[in-house]
Design brief:
Number of helices of chain A: 3
Number of strands of chain B: 6
Number of helices of chain B: 5
Helix content of chain B: 25-40%
Order of helices and strands of chain B: EEHEEHEHEHH
Helix content of chain A: 25-40%
Oligomer: heterodimer
Structural class of chain A: mainly alpha
Shape of chain B: globular
Largest sheet of chain B: 5 strands, mixed
Radius of gyration of chain B: 15 Å
Strand content of chain A: under 5%
Distance between the termini of chain A: 19 Å
Shape of chain A: flat
Mean pLDDT of chain A: 77
């Protein structure tokens, strides 16, 4: 299952509702794969099923 | 097609003076700083790990072994965060290569403020990254 969530961005504004990044909270869970893409290509390329199966 | 395996870092700039690791949006800021510093003759290795779990430790270690200096940029809070994690990995596995202390550039250890001016101060900015790079480059034992 892929869960997509918000990524902060400078000047996103809105306090804890938008620009706060809590990646560390999911990264600490063993077994979860956490992707932090910087661009649309990476976001798509790391979300497709083959990414998971080719993981070392 | 169009897939990238997890745990495979992307190299955005190649340099020999300092390694900058960015997470998510901070990668773009790191690239902007690297390009600005390149005009002064400071060459930065900019790495985007792309996934924080699994993390491409090898790419960062390899880079630090060349540069001897590391700046980790992350928009998360500093305690128990990704920047702290990467710092600890490098301190543990590439200590011999380090020529300066590792610098973390993170948000403040506080809840994120709502006011725009405070949010800007809270969030790591390009000037903060530049200051960290200059610190590690100017460090004398």
């Amino acid at each position: 299952m892929v869960v997509r969530t918000m990524v902060p961005r400078a000047r996103a504004r809105g306090g804890a509702q938008t620009p706060q990044n809590l990646t560390q909270m999911v990264t600490m869970v063993p077994g979860l794969k956490v992707v932090c893409p910087t661009n649309a290509y990476d976001a798509k390329a790391c979300s497709l099923p083959r990414s998971a199966t080719t993981t070392a | 097609m169009y897939t990238i395996p997890f745990g495979e870092a992307r190299f955005l700039r190649e340099g020999s003076d300092v390694t900058i690791v960015g997470i998510s949006n901070t990668v773009n800021k790191a690239v902007a700083v690297a390009d600005r510093l390149a005009a002064e003759g400071i060459s930065c290795d900019v790495i985007d790990p792309r996934t924080t779990s699994p993390l491409d430790e090898e790419a960062i270690i390899e880079s630090v072994e060349t540069t001897g200096r590391l700046v980790v940029v992350d928009e998360m809070t500093p305690r128990c965060g990704i920047a702290a994690d990467i710092s600890s990995i490098i301190a543990e596995k590439a200590f011999g290569a380090l020529r300066a202390p590792i610098r973390k550039v993170t948000a403040a250890h506080s809840p994120i403020p709502f006011a725009p001016a405070l949010e800007d101060a809270w969030m790591p900015q390009e000037a903060d990254i530049e200051a960290a790079v200059r610190y590690v480059l100017g460090y004398q034992r």
